[in-house]
Write a structure and sequence with these properties.
five-stranded parallel sheet, 533 residues, 25 helices, globular, Rossmann fold
């Protein structure tokens, strides 16, 4: 595209077309020049400000982009402009504003598929999976051949329990793009595979054709999951290959996580938990369900949210974001040693108020009890205990070897720092050991604040452990909690298929199928004094 020469004499329609084309081509200078000329010609029209905002975003200037998109919205709201503004607000964890703006965009009845898909993605990010179904469905109806739009619809259908609709959309993707790794993995985890119904032959074939490392990673995970469902020990070979490659790509070093644990222990143990001055926020509505991933947090969330006084808000980033913002540290990581250290000087009430404000858009109704089931909140129990003294905290505990194996075999958000340890068995074992040590510290500093709930005991004696759970959370008995699997609420975790079935012991002791592989981990746990049961 020719970026030279004046543009001011061109018509607004031509300038807008030039700016959009330049954005598609990645020519930010040309896009900015055309958009500026458009603003100069039409200062009270929204299009120039919108296009300047998109150019600023692509240049990495997110805060400036938000201001420009807000200026566009003030000059006459258009669905496309509001949808993109909502997307940026959600990226900045301004969830309440993002939700409001996305819903305003939807009310404007957009007719272009990308805007509809963007609205659906924003609603998904804030946990409104049911609300995302309609815009995703409309986007696919307008552009049925857009595989990204169809994937988003399939994922939303899966989250909301529409398993067959999800399956049909994933298969439609694969009919057009047989090597689509995301669809293959999503199909593998959608339900338990059987000898009569599985995708193993197809997965073996597409694995031989996968040239992209990320595609091969997902396909190997899909293959491992299906092979484990079938009881085939070959599952470990695929996991080992995929995880080793991904760990190298991430350049993960356990020392990074160890530094965070060290900082937390130094901060809290050094002052016996008395580092904050003043009282916290007295709101008692939050129930924090924490623990290592894949230890039953989704199950307990489902049990509690079946209670008539409780609703699930999902896996919120509200506490990590609140602490990070108030700590004011410059790193891009939501948690690191510097942020932990700086958080010790924050008044507890400020943390509590910031948390409640961040969580508010995710609460199904004001005034009700709500569950925040971000597993990694176990790192923040010290902050929670002081900042929200009336909140209830539950931590799931599961057999160490089952915990290690289940973390190792599940593909979490592949670029998330929260789960970077999980691509190596020994790293995962080390992480478990530090988790267990930190939970012992919380028990010492805040006795009685955290209910450490055994997954195995819950499976073995559902009713008595459920009563114990409800009692800790200050809830009366509700028979519906025993029938959690009948709930129609959305589930957006790898446990979605399991929690839609009655409680069972299928996952207890599953590590034993790989006992020889896990023998070094078992020996290491014994050396650390961690019983493996």
């Amino acid at each position: 595209m020719n970026t030279a020469g004046p543009t001011a004499e061109l018509s607004p329609a031509t300038l807008e077309a030039q700016a959009r084309q330049a954005l598609e081509e990645g020519d930010l200078l040309a896009a900015t020049n055309a958009a500026k000329s458009l603003v100069m010609q039409q200062r009270d029209a929204p299009q120039g400000y919108f296009l300047l905002g998109i150019a600023a975003e692509q240049a990495g200037q997110i805060d400036n982009a938000v201001l420009l998109l807000e200026a566009a919205a003030q000059r006459g709201p258009e669905a496309e402009h509001l949808a993109q503004l909502a997307r940026l607000l959600s990226l900045l964890h301004r969830d309440g504003e993002a939700a409001n703006v996305a819903r305003k965009a939807l009310v404007l009845d957009p007719s272009d598929a990308r805007t509809l898909d963007t609205i659906g993605c924003v609603l998904t990010r804030i946990g409104d999976h049911e609300g995302a179904i309609a815009p995703f469905t409309s986007a696919v109806a307008i552009e049925p051949d857009n595989l990204d739009f169809r994937y988003n619809l399939a994922a939303a259908a899966s989250f909301t329990g529409q398993v067959e609709a999800a399956r049909e959309n994933y298969e439609a993707i694969l009919s057009t793009d047989p090597g689509n790794a995301r669809a293959h993995y999503a199909l593998a985890i959608l339900s338990r595979q059987t000898a009569a119904a599985n995708h193993v032959p197809r997965l073996r074939q597409v694995l031989t054709e996968a040239s992209d490392p990320d595609d091969a990673l997902r396909i190997r995970y899909a293959l491992a999951k299906e092979l484990e469902d079938l009881g085939d020990a070959e599952a470990f070979e695929h996991l080992s290959t995929a995880n080793a490659q991904h760990k190298r790509a991430l350049q993960y070093d356990f020392a990074d996580d160890a530094a965070i644990f060290d900082a937390i222990e130094a901060l809290f143990a050094g002052r016996d938990g008395k580092l904050f001055a003043g009282e916290g926020n007295p709101d008692g509505s939050p129930i924090f369900v924490t623990g290592m991933p894949r230890t039953g947090t989704t199950l307990v969330d489902r049990i509690l949210s079946s209670h008539h006084h409780v609703a699930s808000a999902g896996e919120l980033q509200a506490m990590p974001v609140a602490v990070k913002r108030l700590a004011g540290t410059p790193s891009r990581k939501v948690i690191d040693a510097e942020t932990v250290q700086a958080s010790g000087d924050i008044e507890p009430q400020r943390i509590g108020e910031a948390y409640m404000a961040q969580a508010a858009p995710h609460r199904p109704s004001e005034g009700s009890r709500f569950i925040d089931k971000l597993p990694a909140n176990f790192l923040y129990i010290g902050h929670i205990a002081r900042a929200l003294p009336n909140a209830r905290i539950v931590c799931l505990r599961r057999n160490p070897l089952d915990t290690v194996w289940s973390n190792y075999k599940n593909l979490f958000a592949s670029q998330s720092a929260y789960y970077a340890y999980s691509y190596d068995l020994m790293d995962t074992a080390r992480y478990y050991a530090r988790f267990a040590r930190l939970m012992a510290l919380w028990d010492r500093l805040f006795p009685g604040r955290v209910l450490q709930l055994s997954y195995e005991e819950l499976v073995a004696d559902q009713e008595s452990q459920t009563r114990r759970l409800l009692d800790h959370c200050g809830l009366d008995w509700d028979e519906a909690c025993l029938n959690f699997h009948e709930s129609k609420a959305a589930v957006a975790t790898p446990s979605a298929a399991q929690v839609r079935r009655p409680l069972n012991a299928d996952a207890v002791g599953r590590w034993r199928a790989h006992e020889k592989t896990l023998a070094p981990i078992c020996d290491w746990f014994e050396e650390q004094g961690i019983p493996t049961g």
